[in-house]
Every structure is written in structure tokens, then in C-alpha cells.
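Predict both folds.
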Amino acid sequence: MSIIDLFARAEIGEQAPDALLLHIAKSFISDIEIILDVVEAGETPDMAQIEKLLHEASEATFASSGTVSAAHIEARLGLPKAFHKVLTPESVKNALSGLEAGHRFYIVRSDLNQDEELAANFLNWMESGVAQVISNVTVFEGDCTLFDFLISSPLAAVGFNEALSMLDPKGRCLRVEVALADRMEGKHQDDKSGSVQGLTSAEEDATRSMAMQGTISGDMLESIGELVTGQAMVQHLLTRLFESDLVRAVESELDSKEGNWLAARSGVRQTLENWLASVEKLMQLEAQNSALLSRLQEEALAVRVRPAGLLLKPLAPFIDGLARTYERQVALATVGDEIELDFSMLDSLKVALRGLLTFCVSQSIEKPEQRVSSGKPGRGTCRVMLVKHEDHVAITVEDDGAGIDLQRIVQRSRQLGWTDESQDAALALREGFGALSNGEGEGVDLAAIRSQLRLLGGDLKVSNLPSGGTRFLLTQPLAMVVMEGMAVRVGEVQYVVPIDAILRIVRSGGEELMQVSADKGRYLLRLEADDVLPIQFLRRGGQEQGMETALAQCLKQDGGELKHLFVVVGKEGRRAALSVDELIGQQQVLIRPLQGYLSGIRGVTGCALLGSGDVGMVLDVGYVLNRNMDAD
């Protein structure tokens, strides 16, 4: 058929019978003669040469059209087997145009035979420029004849599915089977990339890293495509199950057998098995989608993570510039370059770190001659140490200079009328203090830096080192942290307790409860004969009194059936029993830090969306163990 097609094109003048065409035709005729002779002799012919010629013939049309082969597009898009050797030269050209324009590709399964209006709307939509049909194949589902359309569109997966939903709101006739990704995307980019002129290697790494923030890997696009497809299939099955009437189907089967159960049993059984098969398929799809969501979440977090070196390495040239400006000699030492953080955190910490280092170089570290005269090396040192904890990052900035002039802080606080405050370096962090200076230059507004950090849920502390110099401690909650936690309910509020902090969960009655009257009536929980823990309440006011009443009732029971639920948590050798009303279950949650005014809430590290759709507060176990919350 390929040879006939080529000769037909030559016959109508579309193309001349070139050397490739004549070669294929002669080879085919020659090999066919040999094969026929073998068959006539009663033997089995070798079809390998014919298969090779057929492949050459199928590729000849693309070669003569001056375009790449269909196999190239099949491999580049990862087309399913149904589209193997289906694409025409025109289809390949359209696909290449879509790829060059950065379009997305989708395979849409359609059932348009029963709805002429929908079919017309679908065809008009594809001619509107929002979507272009590359090719299509026929698909058989039972007695139904369907069509799979390979479509190129500038719309992302969400927008594309919304457009299909507008055409077919019930999702019965149009659904995305597969979302395809360009497997060649991102290749050969290394050959084109070069150093950015005028940047240091550290700044160049940071620039490239920030440029990658919006990049989505091919694996992630594939996961998104699979998820969109899975969701469309779930929607299709749900619609089919919703529209089917199981009771009526069973009644119809019984009626057809005139109420004879024995005669209708086989049909009813088949009806129920078909229903069960649909439910099982729905459960399988849900499990696949859950696994895809977990994988997509991990991939998304991995894309956002960058080494802290992108934040710390550019500080060296920054320090050198400051040293030249203020006539100092300063060396920078950093610790924690390899620690991985979310790139948004790296960006938010940049301004604060540079402000603190500016103070160290311009105000604390002395000029070389002053240092030498006081017995110090002429070159000062700044140290930046980054440590990552389970729910926050801590950065310590130190120098070996003179430190903060406390006398100036005392004078400034008196000018502001702050006579009731302790006279220490922390006063410089108080709102309204203004720029802190040791007498040279304008100084640095530490209160403004702290205020900015607090808006992001962080904080700043400052002190003088006993050996001389300044120490800043900067903390900020981690962004986009995935954590295994146990969701619990306390009254109307749901909390998430980190799994690694839970030692055990107990339901105890009056025999295990104690109340110490000498300690303001504090309640204790006895785990073993000589193992007693304090009970912490997560509620305040009237609700807390209600919980204490419940515990009092448990005490009065003295071994009765009335029990109370406790989650025993521990950290760094300290333990406590949290009084809770209900265990909701273990979940993997994505923590989002509290920002703005909410950042001042104590006892929680952030919030998380739970599987039920409710918002849970992620408990700061360290805070719970450090403070007596029911008396706070």
C-alpha cells in the first residue's frame, strides 16, 4: 500500500518518482518473486527482507516530504501502541509545530455517536485554535465504537480538562486518557548554557538555581498527566455507577424470569459481579492516584530544595566589599553549606543575613591597627553557622570584634523613656529603638530585621560573647515540610502530633490518675508503679475545666470503666501525657508555617490540611515539654 501511495502521488504530479521510490519498488518486486518461488516449492519463505522493505516504504513518504519520521514523534511523545505507524507526514508536521510552540499533548477518548450536537461542538472546538487534532484511532469497548484523538493544545492539564467539562459536563462522552510530555524537553541545554558574565561562580550557581525554580521535570509532568488521566477515569466510573440503578437492574432480571429466583439467579449474580468489578476498579484507581499524589508531592518538594551553599557562598564577596568600604580586614567562615532548604527560605533569609553581617563588619569588628594594639590578629573573623532542626532552621552569626556597646544602648533607652527594661543588648531589637551604632556610620536597624523575620514566623536574638564580639541567633520555620503525624481532636480543634515524638498511647482510668494538691491540683498519670508523668492540657478556660472535670470523674471511678485518652510524648529525655478527646489517625501532612499575626501563636509550628479536609495545628512538642501549658 505504501508503494501504491507513492506511485499515485507521482501519477497525479504531487511528486516525481525519485530514486528512493524506484529502489523500493524494484526491491519489493524482486523479493516478492523469490518468496513466491519458495512458497510454490512448499517451503516457508524468509520474510525478514520484506519486513525491512515495508519499513523503508513507510518511512519513504516522510523522507520525500522533508520531515522527520513518525517513529521520531512516537518516541518523543511516548505514544501508546495504538498510534504506532498511524501518523502521516502532515500529522508529523503538525506535531512538530506543536512541540516547537511548547504545546501540551493529550489523548482524548470520545463517544460521539449518540450525541450529534456534542460531536459538532467538539469538532468546532478543535478548529478554534485552542486544540488541534494530530491523528485519531478507532477503539472498541464492548459493543461501542469509540475514537481516541491525539490533540495538541497550549492549555495546561487543568485548563484542558475544564474545557472538556464545558463541552461535556457529565463526563460521559469526552475524557482524557493520557497526558503526554515531550521526552526531549530539557536535553542539550547544557551545550547552550554558559557562564553569566560578571558573576562569581557562587552567584552564577545561585542565578542558575533560581532560574530552575519554575522548571518542571519530565517525570513530574508525566506524573501530573497520569494523575489527570486517573482522575478522569475515576470521574467516568463514578458517573456510570451513579447513573446505573442496581435495584432496578436486579428487579428487571427477576421480572424477565417471571419471579423465578432459581432461573434469575445467574443473571442477578452477573449483574452484581459487574457492579462489584466497577467498584473494585474504582478502588484500584483511587489507590493509584494516591500513590501518584505522594510521588508528585515528593518530586515537587525535591524541585524546591536547594543546598544552603547558594545562600552562604555569595556572602564571601559581600564581606570583602564591606571590608574594603569600612577599612577592615575580615575573613568569613561558614558551616552548613550542604544542608538542603526550600529555595523560598534561602531567598527570604538573604536580606536579614546581609544586614547582620553589615553590623558585624561596620560596628563590631575593629580596624586592623586597633585590633593589633589590643593583642588581637589584624584580620577579624565572621562565622555563619546554619543548623536544620525538624521544624525550623537556626543560623548563628558571630564575630570576634568588640561587640555591642551596652552604654550606648542604655543612653538610647533612657532617651526613649524605657526605664523599666533590663539594660542589655536585647533592647536594640525592640520596636522603635532605631539603628544601632557603636559610633561609626549610620548603624543597622536590628528591630526592622527582627520584625521582618517575625512576619515569616521567625525571630532574632542578640547578645555579646563573653570573649568579645557579637552573637546573633536567627530562627525561621521550615517551609513545605512533609511530616508523619498523628491527628488528634481536643474539643473542636484538631492537632497533629509528630510521630517521632510519640512514645505511646494509653487509655487510663482512675487507678492510673493522680492529683497533687500541693502543686495547684496538678494531675499526673502513672504508667508503671514508679513511672509518673505530668498531664498537659491543650485547651484553656472553660474547656480546660471541662477536661479536668472529666479526669476528676475518672478518679472517682477508682478502677471503673470510665477511661480517658492520653498521648505520651517525649523529647530529649523529657516526657508528658497530652490529654486528648479522640485519635483521628496517622497521616502524612504538608506543614505550612504560620505567617503574619498568626505567627505569634505559641505551641504550634504551623498548620496542615488533613485528609478529612479540616485544618490541623502542628504541635510543637518542644514547647509543650518546656512550658506548663495549663498554667501559661
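Second protein follows, with its predicted C-alpha cells after the sequence.
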Amino acid sequence: MAQKMLLVFVSVIMGLFSYARLNQTFNLMPVPALVKVNAGRVGISGQFRVAVTGKPNSRMYSEASRFVRRLSNKTGIFLDMQGYVTSNDTDTTSTLLINIQRPGLLKLGEDESYTLETHTGKIRITAVTDLGAIHGLETLLQLVSADAAGYYFPGVSIRDNPRFAWRGLLLDVALHFMPVDVVKRTLDGMAAVKMNVLHLHLCNDQGFRVESKLFPRLQQVASDGIFYTQQEINTIVNYAAQRGIRVVPEFVVPAHTTAILTAYPEFASVERDYKLQRYFGVFDPVMDPANEKVYPFLEKLFTEMSSLFPDDYFHIGGDENTGKDWAAVPHIKAFMKVHGMKTTMDLQTYFNQRLLPIIKKTGKKMIGWDEVLQPGLPKEITIQSWRGNEAFYSSVRKGYKAILSYGYYIDLIQPASYHYLNDPIPDSVKLTEIQKNFILGGEATMWSELVTPVTVDSRIWPRTAAIAERLWSPKTVHNVYDMYRRLDIVSLQLESLGLQHLSYKQVLMRRLCNGYNTKPLEVLVSVLEPLKIYERNEGDTMYTVFSPFTKLADIASPDQEVPRIFNEQVEAFLINPSTISEKEIRDKLILWHENNVAFKLLLINSPALSEASLLSENLSALAAAGLEALQYIHDKKTADTEWLKQKIAIATSAKQQGGRCEIQVVNAIQKLVERVTILSKF
């Protein structure tokens, strides 16, 4: 244990030293490929002007104008709204000069590089395409600094380009629908951290979410009346394109098609009464690959849907087919026998082979989840890996282009550090250069079983910014300490864009407390996180699409700052008490111990909070144990065996979940208790 604590302490100290020595990450996220600091400084005043030169397009002018508005909001400086963005190639008076060679194309592999130079009085952003220049503007906004003299840009020289071409976020709008304004603010957040692919998961067992003019029953009976009109899809695509982001649609087949089969049951493998699924999970309904009428239907539907999305890629899903409906139907079993198929996965490969020419006919490239990777699958299909690294590296070794999502499932409530250290090409995996080139990049996935438009931001941000850095920045950028330092700052920057990952908590707490006094709940929630992986939706009461998502587990957010910092402080304190203020630890323990009295008063007017009652009691008892342990350590006194047994029992009890949440400071406080035991041995 002592060795482990020493390693943690060394890691923290090295993190501090690394930041102090290099100090070139500033508050930037993602960290650029190369940053050099100079002695220059560019002050920000009401005379700030922008000149766009070279061969700009309307997108570049619009983004330059948006940059100035955001700069004004960030600094509170009144910037002249007339003529602050010009196109004069001979301009020598503008503060910011942007030069691009050509408009960028929204396609995989387009040049997104840029250079940014700030010297005394002048800033220059130079890029091959406007996409690179837009990234440069985001970097420049993150560089805004302040001191007694006012706001300014520090002197830097930046050369930057992405490590991977595909830096995506899947937003599931099928399980829980996300209105257009939620999608827009998500796109704003993505652009701020240089992500460039929005993957929209548009249909599932719970609903089909896009208007079809050819097959109107899809929105009439298969959506609960909640869907995007084609005009709204156009709005989303244009909004994304303005920010340099591609939109890739996913229409999952042949499984997860209960919604489609509710509208058109004639395409199902099994004849039954189909209704929209209200629960979440993996279900048996699946389209019938032996029915020749299925393929003209999909060709018409996919042709219509692909026309709404100009991107080159079209995702067909292909995941989580149980095969049970196929195995249960005589005509499908006979079909498999005639075609020499031994397993239902052979049949799915056949289905995918029939889909490929349909997708190609629309001018698109086909993507599927890694279940589609079966013998005989054409190499033209891109694999998106979610079940494990083995499938991912197997696909690139076999010559398939691939996108990594395994390790980036942000809906599973894992910490940013976990995602951050999940590199698509780790040193432990040996690949040839050709195989490495098959790795397009990665994609965070926001599945919406357990989120609503109110809470979705808190599950995406700010952790996804860490994934964005992993996919953009050099592989050598992996200092977790510095990542968290910058992530806390970037979180506030994301909030300024309108994202609600911070502000939503107060809304839900006031609702849950049935009033304005939320402080006791706030103290408790600050050390809680929802159950991770899929544990939250296990137990006697399963979530449905109509369940309340306004409870304790919805208020608690992933990777909480308070327990993360407390746990680091305890680790450092136990290694060397002189490095960390004992008072800081003690003050937190006192706060948590005393909070239970005030929390109990909230229960009088808010029965909904009763699910948190045991958590509050356990936190209070746990904090009291920590205070006793801290005093023993301070006094260098020992405790008897009975004391230890009692305190360990308290810690064990505090590990129980309540309200589908867990206390995140249990292990740290238990270590304080165990340290007393170590002292008693000497």
C-alpha cells in the first residue's frame, strides 16, 4: 500500500513539475501539436478588428464574425458591430489577420491544419482551408488571458494539426429524443474542442425519428409523434457544416427495428403484433432477409434518408441481433440451408452484402458496428468497434478501415482519465504502418437510455473534451493531472456556449427539494456519482422511456471534482502530511458529517429525497470515522482492534448504493482509518 501511495504522490508531483517546466498547454484543449511561447502580447480593446484574406468563403466570414461576438461576450468589451470583419488583402490595421488558401471540403481527410502567431499588437492565423482557420479561432479564444492591465492574448507560435481524421460523437436521439436546440448546442461544444463528426443514431426499437415522405407511417405510428422534419434535419446539417462538422446518419438494421416493423410489419421475420418498445435493451424482432420485398423497401428508404445527409458515410448499425427470430422460423431456416449458411451470423453477412450495393447506389460508404465483421464481409465496409479492442485491431489487421468507440462510451459514467488514456494506437499493440493507416480515429458514444434533454449535457461534457484531445493531440500528450486542470477551465468555456452540464443541477435540485433551499442536497450530491456501466438500470424497477429522470441519479454527474480532489489530497497526505493541509481534509469531513442534520429537514417537504436518506447517514458516519482517524494520525496515537473493526464496518456500509448512486470518498476515508492501524503496529 505504501508503495502504491508513493507512486500516486510521485505522479502528482511530476504532473506539477511537468506543467511548471513546460507551461505550454496554457488552458488549451486539445493541446496543439507544437506551442512555443514568446514575449509578445496582444491587448484586447474596442478597436479589435479582423481581416480575412486569401480565398475565403461565406463560412469563414460567418465564423470570424461569431468569433468576435464570442470574444466580446467573454471579455465584456464592446466591440464595434460594424466593419469588424473585412476582406482587404492590404489591411494593416486589423488586429487579427486570417489567411486561407481555399474553402475546405466536409469530407474525411480534409486538411484541418493551421498556424497561429501572436506577437506585439498582431495575430495571424494561416491555414490551407477555412476548416483549419476555424480551429485556429477556437484555439485563440482559449488563449484569452487577463491581468491587472486587462484582457490580452499571450505571445505564442502554434503549429497544429489533428492526429486522427475522424473525431466523432454519437448522439442517440432514438431512445430519448433530443430537440434541435440540444443538437445545436452539442455541435457548438464539439466545435470548441475540434471534433468533426456528429453521428446521429436516428432509429431504434423505441422510435424512428426522421420524417419520411415515401413511408409516412414511420413518423405516424413509429415515433410517438416525436421526430425531426426533413427541414429540421436540413437545419442541423447546415448548422454543423457552418462549424466544420460532418453529420453521419445511422439507420440500424436488421435488428433494433421494432419501430420500423411497427409501421411495416410485413418486413418482419416473425408474424406478431408489433408495438414500440418502452423498455431498453436487446430484443428479438428483426427484418426478414429471405423476403425479397425487404430490399426494395430499404433501397427507397435509404435513398430518401441519404439525400438528407450530404456526408460520404451512411451507418447501417448491424449490432445486437440475437438471431432468435431467424432461428425460430421455418422459411428462414430453409433459406439458410439452401444457401449453405450454418449460423445466423452467416445470414447477417448475406444481408449486409445485399445492403452494400444499395448504399453504394446512393453514393455513400457503408459503416457497421463490429458484429458485421464476419467472413465474407466486403472490405469496402468501415467497422465501428464497440465490444472490445480485440475486434478493433482484428479489423485493421484484416484490411478494414475502422473507428474506435470501445473505451469512449461516455454513457457508462466512467472518469475522464479512463477515456483519456484509451489510445487508439497504444504502444502495447503492434501494427504495421499500413495497418495504422486503416484507423480513421475514434468516436465517443452518448446512448440515451438514461438521459433526457435536461441531463444529456452533463453526460457528454466536459469529459468528451478529454476524448477530443486524445484524438487530436500528439500521442505524447497524456498528463492526466494537467488534463484535469485544463478540463475544469474548459468546462466553464463550454458553459458559455449555452451548454447546461453545470446549470442543470440547480434546476433539478430545486425541483427535488420542492423549494429554494438546496444546500444540504448540494453537499451530498457533490460526493455522489450514478452507478456505472449498466448497473443503474438493474434491479426490481427497470427504466422505461416514460420513467422520471429527475431523481438523485440524474442530478449526480460523472467524475465529480470534489471527491476527485479529496481523494488526491488524502493520498498525498498519507505519504507526506507536510505536503497537504490537514485543515483542508478536516474541513471537508466536518462539512459532510454535519450535513445530515440539515438534509433530514429537507425530507419533511420532499419525500422524493427519501432514497438518499441512507446515503446521507452513511456519509455522516463515514466522515465522523475519518475525523477520528485524522486526529489519531495528527496525535501519532494508536487505536485498538475494536475501533478499527467498527470503522471498517462503517466504510463497508457506506459502499452500499442508494438512489442508484454511490459515495465516491469511501476508499479515501478508509485509507485514513487503515493508516491508524499501521501506526498501531509500531
